[in-house]
Design goal:
Layout (H helix, E strand, L loop, with lengths): L1 H34 L6 H18 L1 H4 L5 H17 L2 H30 L1
Length: 119
């Protein structure tokens, strides 16, 4: 049973890594569009994706050993909500670019190392 759980966690990491790579390849363009008040509907998709990735990080802590700065995450999520409520899409783009992107890059490296070490 433990092997099945580990296998499931590895599959999650692999899928999450693929997702984060797709997001990272498009994030600069998304932020540029947000600053022009275009592509605003993507904010919800990015938020949902981040929530899913955060859940995967929490579920796989035993194999990734990622330290989550909960206060920082809560703060930038709160700022995204505030930016959306105020129509400040420059703020939302900045948070995505300077908070979310580095997290995805950092976590992606950890996921990749864990997956590589397991192979």
């Amino acid at each position: 049973m433990a092997d099945e759980i580990l296998k499931g966690k590895m599959e999650m990491l692999d899928e999450a890594l693929e997702y984060m790579d797709r997001v990272l390849s498009q994030i600069d363009g998304v932020c540029e569009n947000l600053r022009k008040k275009e592509g605003i509907t993507l904010i919800a998709q990015i938020s949902e994706g981040f929530t899913a990735i955060l859940q995967i990080v929490e579920y796989t802590l035993d194999i990734t050993e990622i330290k989550i700065d909960s206060e920082n995450v809560k703060e930038f999520i709160s700022e995204i909500v505030e930016g959306m409520e105020n129509g400040d899409f420059n703020l939302v783009a900045d948070i995505i670019e300077y908070e979310l992107k580095p997290l995805y890059e950092e976590w992606g490296e950890v996921f990749d190392k864990v997956l590589s070490d397991a192979r």
